[in-house]
Design brief:
- This protein has 344 residues and is α+β, with helices and mostly antiparallel strands.
- The protein folds into two domains: 167 residues, Beta-Lactamase (2-Layer Sandwich), CATH 3.30.450; 165 residues, Beta-lactamase.
- 38% of the residues lie in helices and 13% in strands.
- The strands form three sheets. It has a five-stranded antiparallel sheet with strand order 2-1-10-9-8, with helices on both faces. Strands 3-7-4 form a three-stranded antiparallel sheet. The chain has a two-stranded antiparallel sheet with strand order 5-6.
- Strand 8 and strand 9 form a beta hairpin.
- About 2% of the residues have low confidence.
Length: 344
C-alpha cells in the first residue's frame, strides 16, 4: 500500500470514528472508489473488512434493480408490461421501479397474517403474497411518487416468475442468509420483538423474515467491499462502458437519467438522486449522482459527476431509534470529509 493510500485510509478511519463517538452506530465500514479505482476502506468498532452487514433496502438496487437492468438489456423484461393480469394495468415494472405505482410505503405483514405462520413456510409466503397483491389492487395511481417496500416485493416476485428462479438463486452479489443463526462475521442488529432474540446474521426486516429471509425489498448481507465493487462496476459501465453483469450501458444510463424524475420527487428508476438541500450524499454532491439508503444504517452513493463511489455500512439499529437522527446528521459529513481527503 502506498503512503497516499495509507493517509487516505487513516483519514477515513477518523471520519468513521467520529460517527461511532457520536452514537450513530456501534460498528461501521466504509469503502471508497474514485476515477474508476479503489482508493480505500476502513472499519471501526469490532468491524473489519470481512464483516457482513444486513444492508436492508440496498437489496433493492443490488438485487432487484440489477436484475431488472439485465432483463431489459437481454430482452426478457418489458418495463411497460403489466406485472399481472389480475392487477391494475398501471402497475408495471416501470412504475414500480420509480415508486409511482400507487402502493403504500409499508405494511406490517407479520401482524396482518390471518393466522400464525412459520417464517419462510409456503403458507407464510402465500399469505404475504396475497396481502401484497390486495394492496396492489387497491393502489391509487394518482398517489404520486411514494417509496414503497410493497412495490419491490411485488417486482421481486415478477422477476422470479419470469426467470423461474428465486431471488436467492439469481443474485450473485454478497450472500443471502435465511437461517436462524448464519455462520460468519456478521454485525448484530439488536433484539427483535417478534423473534425475542438478538439478530446476528438474520434479516432485521420482519416482513422479509416471515417471507423466509429473502425478498425484493430486503434480505441481502454483504461486506463494504462487495457493495463497493458492485457499485464501481456500474459506475465504470456508465462512464467507460466497461462490461458489467450483462447490462447494456445505454440501459443503465436511461435508468439513471435525471429526466426520469417526476415533479419535485427525486426518484429515478430504482435509485434516488440528490435533493436540492440536505442530501445525504453531502453538500458537494453533483446533480448526476444516484444513491440509496438502508434502514439498518447503510448507504451507497455513486456520483457520476465526480466519478466517486462511497459506501457506508453500519448497524445503527443495534443502538435503537435514537441513533437514526445521529446517523442522518453524520452521513453527509462523511461524504464531505471523503471529498476533502481526495481534494475534490
Amino acid at each position: 500500500m502506498t503512503r497516499e493510500a495509507k493517509t487516505f485510509e487513516r483519514g477515513l478511519w477518523h471520519l468513521l470514528e467520529q460517527g461511532r463517538k457520536q452514537r450513530a452506530y456501534p460498528l461501521a465500514s466504509a469503502w471508497v472508489a474514485h476515477e474508476g479505482r479503489v482508493v480505500g476502506h476502513a472499519s471501526v468498532g469490532a468491524a473489519s473488512e470481512r464483516t457482513r452487514f444486513d444492508v436492508a433496502s440496498l437489496t433493492k438496487p443490488m438485487a432487484v434493480v440489477t436484475l431488472a437492468l439485465r432483463g431489459v438489456s437481454e430482452g426478457w423484461l418489458d418495463l411497460e408490461q403489466p406485472v399481472a393480469t389480475d392487477l391494475p394495468a398501471t402497475i408495471t415494472p416501470y412504475t414500480l421501479l420509480g415508486h409511482r405505482a400507487g402502493l403504500p410505503a409499508w405494511r406490517d405483514l407479520v401482524a396482518a397474517l390471518p393466522t400464525p405462520r412459520v417464517a419462510g413456510s409456503s403458507g407464510a409466503r402465500y399469505a404475504v403474497d396475497a396481502l401484497v397483491r390486495q394492496a396492489a389492487r387497491e393502489a391509487d395511481p394518482n398517489r404520486g411518487v411514494e417509496y414503497s417496500d410493497l412495490g419491490f416485493i411485488l417486482l421481486g416476485r415478477r422477476l422470479e416468475a419470469l426467470t423461474g428462479r428465486s431471488l436467492a438463486e439469481l443474485v450473485t452479489v454478497g450472500s443471502y442468509r435465511a437461517t436462524r443463526r448464519a455462520r460468519g462475521d456478521f454485525a448484530p442488529t439488536g433484539v427483535c420483538p417478534w423473534r425475542e432474540r438478538e439478530l446476528v446474521g438474520e434479516v432485521h426486516d420482519p416482513n422479509a423474515w416471515v417471507m423466509g429471509g429473502v425478498a425484493g425489498h430486503a434480505g441481502l448481507f454483504a461486506t463494504a467491499s462487495e457493495v463497493g465493487r458492485w457499485a464501481l462496476g456500474l459506475e465504470r459501465l456508465a462512464a467507460e462502458e466497461v462490461p458489467f453483469g450483462g447490462i447494456d450501458a445505454g440501459v443503465l444510463r436511461a435508468f439513471w437519467d435525471p429526466g426520469q424524475r417526476v415533479g419535485d420527487a427525486t426518484w429515478v428508476l430504482g435509485w434516488d438522486t440528490p435533493s436540492k438541500t440536505g442530501s445525504s450524499g453531502g453538500a458537494r454532491v453533483s446533480e448526476l449522482a444516484v444513491g440509496h439508503l438502508g434502514f439498518t444504517g447503510t448507504s451507497v452513493w455513486i456520483d457520476r459527476g465526480q466519478r466517486l463511489v462511497v459506501v457506508l455500512l453500519s448497524n445503527r439499529v443495534a443502538l435503537g431509534a435514537t441513533a437514526q437522527a445521529h446517523l442522518k446528521a453524520f452521513r453527509p459529513r462523511l461524504h464531505d470529509g471523503v471529498r476533502d481527503l481526495l481534494g475534490i
